[in-house]
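Dear H.,

Thanks for agreeing to be a second pair of eyes. The structure we're designing against is below in token form, covering all 469 positions.
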């Protein structure tokens, strides 16, 4: 092909590009205005025209307006006290002081009991949801999408209503049985939840605006993914709490320990980069955090296993209608004797050791928090890089937003819930009894006769003739 013929074809290729490549449904391409296409291009929502490229380019990264999350919100008195230090050490002391303050607040909340913990988890969930949704709103704010924020918060209320209603019916059936309004809500809970969600779904469809369909569906997906990440996993945190405060405290504490120790080891000894998503993370911090977390979790498990307040499942006192944490500790919180492996016996010159079984479970929890938990942080780092932001928000000086501190906690909560269901929890007699109390009297009587016959056939109960005598 000659140079002249190639030049003749160039206008035709340009025209094809403008028409969307020349293929597909002509009606769909005609309905997309130049203004909408330009808007999508500015947000980086189009496909790569020139194939794949290395790294994040301006073409595929949304142009996020600046926010207060990127500003320094350190209190003035801290800035003055640390003004003579290099930036690296200044950040070290700011993070240290705020970390100690947050840990002290965590101990205070634990002391205040399970009710306070539930409200704190709900507050953190709402704040994390707000931080992620706000990023989406900033990205697409120029389009003034109708009802976006209102529908996002509406869906948050719907999903919370569903999850917390399920928890109340599952764990506190006896309380529901005594209250007439709660009986109605419990019986039709899932239908009510679905009806509420359906109303939001219809409102979203009615809010669709021509030329912004694609953006509105992006934000619809954004909201639902946020609900999946934040609300679902925060609900699992509360489920773990009801199994016993130890299942709430230990997982959260070991993630905090791993975060602190990995930072300290990386700060003082870090030389080898760990992952490109987080350039400041090092192998030295990762390995040092692992061993420190396993040791910390082992001794924390030993300490907490000695107290009923931490090991007993959270229940309802029928007389006071308040939460109670009194029980006979289960086997995993009773000291047992274990025979050590031969290699360890020769090293320690000791054949057996007394441990709480929960201490063994804590090793697995700590290993997950140290080896897999950080990937929640890497995921969050990738998300922030995708939208060119430093932190989710600026709530905590030196730390960023609430979501910056809980990116690993939610992943840990899910693992803990799955671990309990798979390796620890068996059938719960109190929960089965609560479900039986919600049945009709004739159903309860039928179950009683069936259970009575079953126990008599197994020889656990004496025969009917012997009972008559």
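And this is the sequence the design step returned. I haven't edited it by hand at all.
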């Amino acid at each position: 092909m000659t140079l002249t013929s190639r030049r003749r074809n160039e206008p035709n290729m340009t025209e094809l590009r403008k028409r969307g490549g020349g293929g597909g449904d002509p009606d769909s391409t005609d309905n997309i205005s130049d203004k909408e296409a330009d808007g999508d291009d500015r947000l980086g929502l189009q496909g790569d025209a020139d194939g794949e490229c290395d790294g994040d380019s301006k073409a595929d990264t949304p142009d996020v307006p600046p926010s207060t999350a990127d500003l320094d919100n350190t209190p003035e008195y801290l800035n003055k006290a640390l003004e003579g230090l290099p930036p690296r050490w200044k950040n070290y002391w700011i993070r240290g002081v705020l970390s100690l303050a947050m840990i002290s607040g965590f101990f205070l909340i634990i002391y205040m009991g399970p009710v306070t913990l539930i409200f704190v988890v709900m507050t953190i969930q709402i704040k994390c949801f707000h931080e992620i949704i706000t990023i989406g709103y900033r990205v697409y704010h120029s389009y003034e999408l109708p009802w976006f924020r209102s529908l996002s918060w509406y869906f948050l209320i719907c999903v919370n209503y569903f999850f917390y209603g399920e928890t109340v019916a599952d764990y506190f059936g006896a309380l529901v049985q005594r209250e007439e309004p709660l009986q109605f809500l419990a019986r039709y809970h899932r239908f009510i939840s679905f009806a509420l969600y359906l109303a939001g779904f219809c409102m979203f469809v009615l809010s669709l605006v021509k030329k912004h369909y694609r953006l509105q569906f992006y934000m619809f997906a954004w909201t639902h993914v946020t609900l999946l990440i934040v609300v679902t996993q925060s609900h699992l945190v509360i489920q773990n709490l009801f199994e016993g405060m130890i299942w709430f405290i230990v997982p959260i504490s070991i993630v905090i320990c791993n975060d602190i120790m990995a930072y300290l080891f990386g700060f003082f000894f870090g030389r080898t980069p760990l992952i490109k998503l987080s350039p400041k993370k090092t192998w030295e911090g990762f390995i040092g955090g692992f061993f420190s977390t396993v040791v910390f979790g082992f001794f924390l498990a030993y300490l907490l296993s000695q107290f009923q307040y931490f090991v007993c499942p959270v229940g309802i006192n029928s007389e006071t209608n308040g939460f109670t944490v009194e029980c006979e500790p289960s086997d995993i919180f009773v000291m047992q004797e274990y025979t050590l492996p031969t290699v360890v016996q020769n090293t320690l010159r000791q054949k057996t050791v007394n441990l709480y079984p929960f201490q063994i479970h804590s090793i697995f929890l700590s290993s997950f928090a140290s080896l897999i938990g950080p990937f929640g942080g890497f995921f969050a780092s990738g998300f922030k890089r995708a939208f060119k932001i430093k932190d989710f928000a600026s709530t905590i000086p030196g730390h960023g937003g609430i979501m910056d501190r809980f990116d690993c906690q939610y992943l840990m909560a899910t693992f803990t819930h799955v671990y309990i269901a798979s390796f620890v929890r068996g059938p719960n007699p109190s929960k089965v009894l609560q479900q039986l109390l919600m049945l009709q009297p004739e159903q309860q009587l039928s179950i009683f006769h069936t259970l009575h016959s079953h126990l008599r056939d197994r020889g656990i109960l004496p025969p009917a003739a012997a009972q008559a005598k």
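Two observations from my side: Residues 116-145+209-300+360-445 form one domain. The CA atoms of residues 166 and 189 lie 8 Å apart.

Warmly,
E.
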